[in-house]
Amino acid sequence: MHQENFNDLSAFVIVATERSFTKAAARLGVSQSALSQTIRNLEERLGLRLLTRTTRSVSPTEAGERLLLTVKPRFEEIESELVALTEQREKPVGTIRITASEHSATSILAPALAKLLPNYPYINVEVNVDHGLTDIVAERFDAGVRLGERVAKDMIAVRISPDLRWLVVGAPSYFARHAQPLMPQELTAHNCINIRFPTHGSLFAWDFEKDGHELKVRVEGQLTFNSLALRLDAALSGLGLAYLPEDIVAPHIAEGRLVTVLEEWCPYSPGYHLYYPNRRYASLAFSLVVEALRYPVQGAARPC
């Protein structure tokens, strides 16, 4: 149906409801003659008279009454939905869908949302844990969380964490049986705890860098997980070396349950960023979630 058909139907509903061309024309901001011509065009298209006109009144014909009963509720539903959508922009209400890695979900999203959501009971947040690079537009997510260097250039990116680094760790019981590696390449001789990306099936290569020299080491071992918690537990049990976020292993290192190796090869990298397409008319709910997650850039980039 052409756009003008909707305009004609909308004009008819207003005239039939007001029972007056004068009042209807005032509501629509058009002249009475233009409105009368609009109704005549609609009647000609349908081949039916919809309104009975006299010098003092306007009333629907039988066909007009039937059309009014059918069309008016639809327009009211549309108007109601448009009002509801406007309220989403003006009131904190709605569901925000975010895709994130396990580490960012547990260390960044969960604490921030725990502070935000109790104050806004009509905001719902759905977090989907995914280690791959999800196409948030195709998968209908509102935003994604990834490390800074992995965010596509055509996305808006908001920093939500300080700079981060991953450390190679093992339990004292593991190093009681194996010598500590002094170079990243030596990891190939160790029993390493791998992570597999579920989205494309490949094993994660461990990244290293020192004095501008970058290395990617593909390690092997008896265990492969797609869970950070399981990799940590395996490392604590002395089952192999693991490559894990510093904030996760730091307490265990401090208490002697884990030992870090190759630390000089583990530099900091850009932290997590929330990324999303241009949202010129973002809802208030989405804006509140973004602000709750935003990292204060003016502060120290690296954790103390």
From TrEMBL:
The keyword DNA-binding applies. Keywords: DNA-binding, Transcription, Transcription regulation. Belongs to the LysR transcriptional regulatory family. InterPro entries: LysR-type_TF_proteobact-type (IPR058163), LysR_HTH_N (IPR000847), LysR_subst-bd (IPR005119), WH-like_DNA-bd_sf (IPR036388), WH_DNA-bd_sf (IPR036390). This is Transcriptional regulator, LysR family. It holds the Pfam family HTH_1. It comes from the Bacteria. Residues 4-61 form the HTH lysR-type domain. GO terms for molecular function: DNA-binding transcription factor activity; sequence-specific DNA binding. It comes from Pseudomonas batumici. One of its GO terms (biological process) is DNA-templated transcription.
